[in-house]
Specification:
alpha/beta, 5-stranded parallel sheet
Length: 481
């Protein structure tokens, strides 16, 4: 693994500062470029098949990791795929973007014993990519067709997982999404060097081939009301995700040259799709030749700093108010960013965004911090030391996380209840909202989280929706008799 990371670093640093189309097609070169059959077998064989499978406990989906590792080691890849996909609707996507160092690999028995973890994510990706190549991934064929229908609002991981599970049971499913493509943050929020977009597109295509209808460019509350959807479908799932960017609370946060992370990443991803992106072409959302400062410490911040490097930024600095050990993002991502030339300013918090009289961005003024007493979550709160410093900047990217949009207002449904953070309230036993027959899953319920958690939530919601529709179906039959 270390050899592959070193090789990747050397290749990237030898590339020209400005990425070309031919460069971009080879972006996904980190861990998996040469992950051969022999490497997969070697790593899978290292699994100790321990009596207590901690790796499975560390996975939100409770994937049967030891069994598909054993099958992979025996070169029984089709069976390994069947086991892997039984609990995960997108194993090749999770294999690429899950923070395995915080989940399955981080709790691996071999890792805990000091011998280095089994590279579970790499093998998961290898198994499923082979399944696609060999034609083992086929459209869904339900055992019987049902007349009841489900409307899914949001084509992100939670919505897609729920749509697949409901279609497997024979329901008629329509997915509505405000974007022009399916995938949500998988296509517009996560860079192509971490997740190739054709990997997401083929998942969408499979669902379409399975009989699931997609209605893109459809914003609920504008193109169609939630009330109308409730009349058209027997059940509804809200899986919109969270897209409202958290803002900087300092002077100058609205200055020219300061952008939300998702706006920046979406422009980059659209450009790589070949879309017309005027704000990228005129240099506004392009980091080429600029001194870039990214504020934040999560995975989105890492996506921004690494995207800026690939766009040819003059320098890239990540500003985070806590230390490295308390960073919410993947440590693996931090290591990758450091190897690619990103500078990290730990224990530093922005005080102001400075610009010239002409309105041109000049610098970020920051305070040095220290960790004080734990806050309500148990984490040590950052406290200012009194020392300040400036970081020169031509572009500042705010990667501070996301909040829910105001869905009751957007949907025109005041009786849709939300909590104090704006997330949709559900009965966690059923995933049903305050509106009968309307369910919710993913980030819009739990707040910004991981793709793997969204998949789990989508699966759980689909099962609850299925039970409710079956009960209605039985009640209708009894009434008819």
């Amino acid at each position: 693994m270390a050899e592959k990371m070193l090789k990747f670093t050397k290749v990237e640093r030898s590339m020209p500062s400005k990425r070309t189309a031919s460069d971009r097609k080879d972006d996904f070169e980190e861990i998996y470029a040469e992950f051969s059959k022999e490497k997969a077998s070697e790593q899978a064989t290292r699994c100790s098949q321990c009596g207590v499978p901690f790796c499975q406990q560390g996975c939100p989906l409770s994937n049967n990791i030891p069994d598909w590792l054993k099958l992979a080691a025996e070169d029984r890849l089709e069976e390994a795929y069947q086991v892997s996909s039984a609990t995960n609707n997108m194993p090749e996507i999770c294999g690429r973007i899950c923070p395995q160092d915080r989940l399955c690999e981080g709790i691996c028995t071999i890792e805990q014993s000091g011998h280095g973890t089994v590279t579970i994510g790499s093998i998961e990706k290898y198994i499923t990519d082979n399944a696609w190549e060999q034609g083992w991934v086929t459209p869904i064929t339900p055992p019987r067709e049902r007349t009841q229908s489900a409307g899914i609002i949001g084509a992100g991981p939670a919505g897609l997982a729920a749509a697949e599970q409901l279609r497997r049971k024979g329901y008629q499913v329509t997915v509505y999404d405000a974007y022009d493509r399916g995938g949500g943050l998988l296509v517009y929020g996560i860079p192509g060097f971490k997740l190739e977009k054709d990997v997401v597109e083929r998942r969408i295509k499979r669902l379409e081939d399975s009989g699931i209808a997609f209605r893109f460019n459809t914003r609920i509350g504008e193109a169609v009301s939630l009330a109308t959807l409730r009349e058209e479908h027997d059940t509804i799932l809200i899986a919109t995700g969270v897209y409202a960017a958290k803002d900087l609370k300092c002077p100058g946060s609205g200055a020219k040259g300061v952008f939300p992370a998702l706006e920046y990443l979406t422009a980059s991803n659209r450009k790589n799709f070949g879309d017309a992106v005027p704000a990228y072409d005129d240099g506004t959302l392009n980091a080429d030749g600029k001194r870039v400062v990214v504020i934040g410490g999560g995975d989105t911040a890492m996506d921004c700093v690494r995207t800026a490097i690939r766009q040819g930024a003059k320098s890239v600095t990540c500003l985070y108010r806590r230390d490295r050990a308390n960073m919410p993002g993947s440590q693996r991502e931090v290591t990758n960013a450091e190897e690619e030339g990103v500078t990290f300013e730990w224990l530093a918090s922005p005080d102001a965004i400075l610009d010239t009289k002409a309105g041109k961005l000049k610098a970020v003024r920051a305070s040095r911090m220290k960790l004080g007493e734990p806050d309500a979550s148990g984490r040590q709160s950052p406290v200012k030391t009194g020392e300040t410093f400036d970081i020169k900047a031509d572009m500042v990217i705010k990667a501070l996380g996301f909040d829910p949009e105001d869905l009751p207002e957007l949907f025109g449904e005041e009786t849709l209840t939300v909590n104090r953070w704006g997330a949709v309230r559900v009965d966690y036993a059923t995933m049903e909202t305050s509106l009968p027959g309307v369910y919710a899953a993913g980030d819009i319920v739990r707040g910004a989280s991981l793709v793997v958690w969204a998949i789990k939530d989508g699966r759980d919601a689909a099962e609850a929706m299925h039970k409710a529709m079956r009960a209605e179906e039985r009640a209708s039959k009894v009434a008819a008799e």
